[in-house]
Amino acid sequence: MIKVEKLYKSFGKLDVLKDISTEIQKGEVVAIIGPSGSGKSTFLRCMNLLEMPTSGQIYIDGTDITAGKADISKIRQNVGMVFQHFHLFPHMTVLENMTYAPIKVKGMSKETARAKGLELLKRVGLEGKADVYPTKLSGGQKQRVAIARSLAMEPEALLFDEPTSALDPEMVKEVLDVMKSLATTGITMAIVTHEMGFAREVADRILFLDEGRLLEDRTPDEFFNHPESDRAKQFLQKML
Ligand code: ADP
Ligand code: MG
């Protein structure tokens, strides 16, 4: 579903991504791991054009989104993003957060958007919170709303950038559980995470980035048991 070919990204003189090529199949769950500053967020952000690649191609369903005339709004509808810090609209209720873009951007009717929103809230275990404002929610609840809000756009793929890194430890599991159940629905997922247990259990594939290079692209079993690069070995020794 997503094909990345010789992707490079620089910020000024800083080369952040170097020659990254990989493919993510439809329905696949890919965990992106690596040290801080290795380019994980930048890589993720290139996949829905929150960052424009310096060179190389990214194809979504066969369409080159780096070609210039790509419809960015349409790409972001199809490839959603969940951030570390939730990014909920504070002045809207939970349900308004969820129905805003489907109505405005997708032209969904208010009734359909509300019905769909309520159904998604149920799916993330927050059916009672539709009319509450985000400030009244815990971090874990906010992130579950953010996930449900992304799903309301009916994306083909969802990108997660450290979705549990800003959460108190006791709230990490409720978010990972939602993501785990999502992973079984056939949606394509790319997840930047430091949760090694989760990556090992849920991901179909691990991408390991180090200093902007994709050093490993393999199954969790291969990656965790037999990492090839010294960098990955060192990283795992620190993490596990
Ligand atoms: P990671 O998510 O793996 O921690 P990032 O992709 O956030 O890494 O960052 C990789 C490198 O790119 C870092 O050195 C960071 O400072 C730099 N960087 C990221 N975004 C920008 C930006 N918008 N402008 C300049 N430098 C950036
Ligand atoms: Mg990051």
From TrEMBL:
Gene3D superfamilies (UniProt xref): P-loop containing nucleotide triphosphate hydrolases
- Domain named ABC transporter is located at 2-236
Q: Alphabetically list the UniProt keywords.
A: ATP-binding, Nucleotide-binding, Transport
Which InterPro entries did the record assign? AAA+_ATPase, ABC_ATPase_HisP-typ, ABC_transporter-like_ATP-bd, ABC_transporter-like_CS, MetN_ABC_transporter-like, P-loop_NTPase
Q: Does the keyword ATP-binding apply?
A: yes
Q: Which domain of life is it from?
A: Bacteria
Alphabetized GO MF terms:
ABC-type amino acid transporter activity; ATP binding; ATP hydrolysis activity
What Pfam families is this protein classified in? ABC_tran
Q: Which PANTHER family match?
A: AMINO ACID IMPORT ATP-BINDING PROTEIN (PTHR43166), ARGININE TRANSPORT ATP-BINDING PROTEIN ARTM (PTHR43166:SF37)
- Report what the protein is called: Peptide ABC transporter ATP-binding protein
Species, as recorded: Tumebacillus algifaecis
Lineage summary: Bacteria, Bacillati, Bacillota, Bacilli, Bacillales
